[in-house]
Amino acid sequence: MKVTALAGGIGAGKFLRGLVRAVPAEDVTVIVNVGDDILMHGLHVSPDLDSVTYWLGDAFDRERGWGRRGETFRATQELAAFDPEAAWFGLGDLDLATHLFRSRELASGATLSQVTERVCARFGVGARVLPATDDLLTTRIDAVDPASGLALDLHFQEYWVRRRATDDVKGVRFAGADAAGPAPGVLEAIREADVVVICPSNPVVSVGPVLAVPGVRAAVAARSAVVTGVSPIVGGAPLAGMADKLMPAVGMEVSAAGVARAYADLLGSWVIDEADRGLARSIGDELGVPVVVTDTVMRDDVVAEALARATLSAGN
Ligand code: FO1
Questions:
Q1: Best label site of 6, 40, 92, 134, fewest CB within 10 Å?
Q2: Whose CA is nearest to atom 21 of ligand 1?
Q3: How remote is the CA of residue 47 from the centroid of ligand 1, in Å?
Q4: pLDDT of residue 56 exceeding 90
Q5: DSSP string, 7-29
Q6: Mean pLDDT of all residues in 185-199
Q7: Is the CB of residue 91 below 6 angstroms from any atom belonging to ligand 1?
Q8: Is there an atom of ligand 1 within 6 Å of 8 CB?
Q9: Complete domains list, the chain, with CATH
Q10: Is the pLDDT of residue 239 over 90?
Q11: Tell me, what's the pLDDT at 9?
């Protein structure tokens, strides 16, 4: 069974570990958000591509949720000794090697897809991991500083890491999306999949930028009969991240129903957590799709595998 998954960071990473236990990794294609990518100290950092790679390559840090296990931050600490302001984005010493390699390859003319393939090979990742686009697509947050009332136009990482999501969000934009094209293999993977999975990732800043690449949303909608999504919202709150702050800013209700509505044109079925069992009937009636209720809180790979199997059955 060929599976294509749309993915962001931590929720997707956990889910994908279960997915490659349920189907052979070679049958899995993962299309990953690049809206979080940032040029930092001249290096190209791709947080969600690296997150998916580290989770699938068994190099992830489950507690921190991002970056590599056994990581140290000596280079970032040394940078902070020069200037604390320069060190707001914590680049781990091992992680740094990935950014150095990626930046060097990009500078010598490789595409992001080509570099991603090489990074995945180094971590022994069997699934095919594709950036949603090889072009520049950046998530920007329009916000207001609550202290000064000043309007801010922030890179996603400035909003989330540097300013710790303390600003009032007014809107979310995907700069460059209109001029971007799907990376090689993206549309084919959607067209040829037996099941398309929308991972339990933030619908605004993880899945949103993937669907914003021209042609991708239409390609997924054309396969809606086999599209199944997993809610990243459990009991009215995200398990990780900042979806509760960003969803209201774009008019989405922070609930398993709110995320389903955002994907209304895409879904053939929808998977929600036991905690939201009470919403199953109304979501099903409203969207006209079957709703599967199961344990979606992926404490370990065994739960993630059971969730992946339930998701695949719903979509097939
Ligand atoms: N998240 C943080 O909360 N603080 C950091 O300093 C930080 C650094 C960082 C460096 C590389 C990387 O790949 C991810 C990093 N993250 C950090 C995670 C990242 O900000 C987000 O969680 C993702 O972009 C959302 O998926």
A1: 40
A2: 47
A3: 6
A4: yes
A5: E-SHHHHHHHHHHHHHS-GGGEE
A6: 98
A7: yes
A8: yes
A9: 1-135+181-316 (3.40.50.10680), 138-178 (no CATH)
A10: no
A11: 81
